Amino acid sequence: RLTIIFNSCKCKEEAFKKLALWFNEIEEAGIESFRTVYRSIETHHPSILNYFNNRSTNASAESFNAKIKSFRASARGVRDINFFLFRLQKIYA
After folding, report:
1. Exposure of 69 in the CB half-sphere (CA atoms within 13 A)
2. Contact 71, 37 (CB under 8 A)
3. Nearest residue to 48 (alpha-carbon basis) of 20, 70, 24, 79
4. Across 61-73, average pLDDT
């Protein structure tokens, strides 16, 4: 049902209402694994509802962040920060 909400809702208000109904269903079901998802969505719902503004996510930023972390891990012990940033720019720019 959560997938249906994300696929069918076109605006924040509609999604907010359907998420509220989904929250009620989760509370009634009493399934502990869903309660974890429930708490996570409840905590981050303002950010999650921003998805419905233009249906975009921050996945590209997260992917780039992961690439930078991987590059940092492969270049442990670098002392010349300017050269590190230069290499990072040349590889990922």
Report:
1. 6
2. no
3. 20
4. 85
